Amino acid sequence: MSSKFEISDDADELNQEIDDTNFPTRSNSISFSVANGNGSTGSLNNGYGPFANRRRSSSIRRTESEMTEEGENGEGGPENGGLSHHQQQQQQQQQDAAMTLDRNNENGENGSGTTNTANGSSSSSVIAPGGLNRARPTPIRTTSLSGHEKCTFHHDLELDHKPSTREDLLPLMSKSYRMLLSSLGEDPERQGLLKTPERAAKAMLFFTKGYDQSLEEALNGAVFDEDHDEMVVVKDIEMFSMCEHHLVPFYGKVSIGYLPCKKILGLSKLARIVEIFSRRLQVQERLTKQIAVAVTQAVQPAGVAVIIEGVHMCMVMRGVQKINSKTVTSTMLGVFRDDPKTREEFLTLCNNK
């Protein structure tokens, strides 16, 4: 049975003359088979050189896999296993495109041929004639892209920028706690420690949940217009935080006072502000200031005062081990800083039992 792809002798001779004139060729010839539509194969013998891929002498296109097989058999170009420089570039492009497609599959985008990047652009994998995969270059990724300034978790190495939920962090954190237990000489496989890494990871995520919360979310619109200009004080708000120096807890009570200026804040929102900033890795001095600044941003009062009295386990459980020591910090803004009488009134109200 004859091949589907037949080339006349005259056309072949003409193309050979064009090739001899414009493209350097090798003296030896190669043979390869191309499957036709009926399952049979046809044979074609042609000399070729580094520019053989550019010929238009026939409609037969050799695939990258066939060219690679010829190189492995010692046929083809003069260097590097029989592949010409251009063919090596095509093979490298195919490998790069295959890696890109694999990454797409891992991100649930099978068959789309597109990889999303953090800045919304894309890197496309294109199937060229002859079965070659060509990949356009992927833009350089950064963590300072427009629209991602407020992202808490920005994974720069991910193909897609999808801010992780806190649950997504559990496997890696659990693995880290498991390594910590092993480093301490413990056996993570014993019954009492079998689920400890996961429990510890969940606990740490809860202790630091303030990183995922914002002031706007906490206020939830609970700012009200009210013609009231007298002091408002909410005291003895329980506070639990984590010392950023030793990763051990410190806890205590927070008292907040402010002088409204035509706006008041829902009372429970003061406690929520404390929760946002205390549920992070902190030092007490910074925590005090952050709470005061947040109240100022919320209602623009005439003044804000915050006092925190805390017990630090880094001083109780280790180091100097002083179990009865307490740390008191304060921040005074506006009239609480400028007017001694206003400050004294606040301190009196906080000390009254």
Protein architecture, described:
Among the domains are: 166-212, GTP Cyclohydrolase I, Chain A, domain 1 (Orthogonal Bundle), CATH 1.10.286.10; 220-351, GTP Cyclohydrolase I, domain 2. By secondary structure, the protein is an alpha+beta fold. Strand 1 (30-35) and strand 2 (41-46) form a beta hairpin. Helix content is 35%, strand content 21%. The strands form 4 sheets. A 5-stranded mixed β-sheet has the order 10-7-8-11-12, sandwiched between helices. It has helices at 9-22, 64-72, 85-106, 170-183, 196-207, 215-219, 267-278, 284-299, 313-316, 335-338, 340-351; strands spanning 30-35, 41-46, 114-116, 122-128, 132-135, 223-225, 232-243, 249-259, 263-265, 281-282, 303-312, 327-334. It contains 11 helices and 12 strands.
Brief summary of the model shown:
By secondary structure, the chain is α+β, with helices and mostly antiparallel strands.
Span from first to last CA? 106 Å
CATH class of the domain at 220-351: Alpha Beta
Fraction in helix: 25-40%
SSE arrangement, N to C: HEEHHEEEHHHEEEEHEHEHEHH
Overall shape: it is extended
- Whole-number average pLDDT? 74
Number of strands: 12
Describe the sheet with the most strands: 5 strands, mixed
The fold-level CATH name of the domain at 220-351 is GTP Cyclohydrolase I, domain 2
> CATH homologous superfamily of the domain at 220-351?
GTP cyclohydrolase I, C-terminal domain/NADPH-dependent 7-cyano-7-deazaguanine reductase, N-terminal domain
In quaternary terms, these chains amount to single chain
- Roughly what fraction of the amino acids lie in strands? 15-25%
Cα-based radius of gyration, to the nearest Å: 36 Å
Q: Helical stretch count?
A: 11
CATH architecture annotation of the domain at 220-351 = 2-Layer Sandwich
Q: Which structural class is indicated by helix and strand composition? A: alpha+beta
Strand order of the largest sheet: 10-7-8-11-12
Low-pLDDT stretches: 1-7, 22-63, 74-81, 109-143, 152-161
Domain GTP cyclohydrolase I: 174-350
Keywords: GTP-binding, Hydrolase, Nucleotide-binding, Tetrahydrobiopterin biosynthesis
Biased composition (Acidic residues): 8-20
GO molecular function, one term: GTP cyclohydrolase I activity
